[in-house]
């Protein structure tokens, strides 16, 4: 099966570079999201991948939730 047909069936768009590519920058994505940065502009590939991959979306949402409960370095606890 060629990549075009596979992507068409599985719903992976041209911006979606797969799980490994998203996980390579997940820390940067999560930090940017928590700062309120425009993650759709900064990380379009991660946003595109999360739209179609429930497993990665759950992992990233869990990471973001965990980071919300951690005080930034230098902040008094």
What does this structure look like?
It is a single chain. This protein has 77 residues and is an all-alpha fold. It has one domain (3-68). Helices cover 68% and strands 0% of the residues. It has 6 helices and no strands. The chain has helices spanning 3-10, 19-24, 26-35, 39-42, 44-52, 54-68. α3 (26-35) crosses α6 and α5 (44-52) packs across α6 (54-68). The radius of gyration is 15 Å and the shape is globular. The termini are far apart. The mean pLDDT is 78.
Quick recap of the structure?
The protein has 77 residues and is mostly helical. It is 68% helix and 0% strand.
Which helices and strands appear, and what pairs or packs with what?
Blueprint: H1 3-10, H2 19-24, H3 26-35, H4 39-42, H5 44-52, H6 54-68
Helix pairs in contact: 3-6, 5-6
Strand content: under 5%
- What class would the helix/strand composition place it in? mainly alpha
Give the topology string: H per helix, E per strand: HHHHHH
Record field, number of beta strands: 0
Radius of gyration: 15 Å
- How many separate structural domains? 1
Shape: globular
Q: Ranges with pLDDT <50 over ≥5 residues?
A: none
Work out the helix count. Answer: 6
Amount of helix: 55-70%
Give the rounded overall mean pLDDT: 78
Main sheet attributes: strand count, strand direction, barrel closure: none
* First-to-last CA distance: 54 Å
């Amino acid at each position: 099966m060629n990549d075009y047909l596979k992507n068409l069936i599985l719903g992976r768009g041209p911006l979606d570079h797969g799980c490994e590519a998203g996980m390579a920058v997940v820390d940067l994505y999560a930090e940017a999201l928590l700062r309120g940065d425009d993650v759709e502009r900064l990380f379009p590939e991660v946003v595109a991948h999360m739209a179609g991959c429930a497993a990665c979306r759950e992992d990233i949402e869990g990471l973001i939730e965990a980071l919300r409960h951690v005080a930034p370095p230098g902040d008094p606890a």
